[in-house]
Amino acid sequence: MKTQKSGHDLKNVLKHFRITGQFVDARPFGAGHINDTFLMRNKHRDADHYLLQRVNHHVFKNIPRMMDNIGLITNHIRKQLQHIPGSDPHRQCMTFLPAIDGNLYFEDRERNFWRVCLFIPNSHSFDRMENSAKAWQGGKAFGQFQKFLTDVPADQLHETIPFFHDVEKRLQTFSQVVKNDPVKRVRKVSQHIKFIENRSDEMRLVLRMAREHKIHQRITHNDTKFNNILFDKTEKALCVVDLDTTMPGYVHYDFGDAIRTGCNTGAEDDANLENIRLDIDLFSAYTHGFLTETISFLTDTEVETLAFSAKLLTFIMALRFLTDYIDGDNYYKIQFEGHNLQRANAQFRLLEKMEEQFERMQEIVLRQAERVEMGGFRL
Fold this sequence. Notes:
By secondary structure, the chain is α+β, with helices and mostly antiparallel strands. It has two domains: 10-120, Phosphorylase Kinase, domain 1; 132-376, Aminoglycoside 3'-phosphotransferase, Chain: A, domain 2. It is built from 13 helices and nine strands. A five-stranded antiparallel beta sheet has the order 1-2-3-5-4. Strands 6-9 form a two-stranded antiparallel ribbon. The chain has a two-stranded antiparallel ribbon with strand order 7-8. Helix 8 crosses helix 11 and helix 11 runs antiparallel to helix 12.
């Protein structure tokens, strides 16, 4: 059972995992750009289907540690769900199957890393929030994800991608790339560089608060795009997926990136900057959904700086796109010359729109926090 895309004997790979059933075919699944995913369909109607993934070990340098994280996270969430009446742990939490040797991965002779999880039927994802109801469900889903993990010490997890959202490290890399100017693009982006420099001190706020012990690390997902939530047929949030970057972090990283990716009215690389603004209604709905699950354990300082986190994560992505452009487009795949600069421009515009509405964003967070604490409904 080979596919044209993989070139691997997928049926043979499956033999290394503790699965049941007889498989009829393998189909490429999803639109992910990092891992190769295949839906392995079972011949028997009542048997589980599986998702088989070849994990990108160039992005994730230590697959065993990453899978240790995922095993700890999913086992803990499943135990939490078992105590909630009416919950379905097999549908509300990813289930990874052990290989024959007991690990949650299999390494083949070519040093490819594979893993298998149960396919969750009758579920789907959305690329955009679309409306306030979906935004509220998304906020609740990612909030609940953090809530389930509040009693797990963050230091029990490994850092799967070191310094992933560390703005100070990103700024250091940016400064070095600007200094080196390897493909002579610095002169083209002098205004962009000033934009970064003018905000660099403000954007260190979260790390400063951490050093001053005003906030502490939690277990965070770190890739809170809206399509990393599965919904059921009734469009109720069902399960948070794509756990590869789950590791120690700050609540700001999850909230901020969800707002950056979900509340932008334009595309992440929109060429028409007039398309880009922050949808304040989606922001309000997502915030309320998130706080319904997190208000019980977030500190006042964390809540008071949630709105800022949207600016921070947008700044970080603009910084990363601009760094890659100046460096010669070595990290992100581009579709045309200047694509990374176009991406950076779109993020700069979104950040500007957030800055224009920041007072209102702050007011919304505090108002929604008050409503949740009082038991109020969001509408």
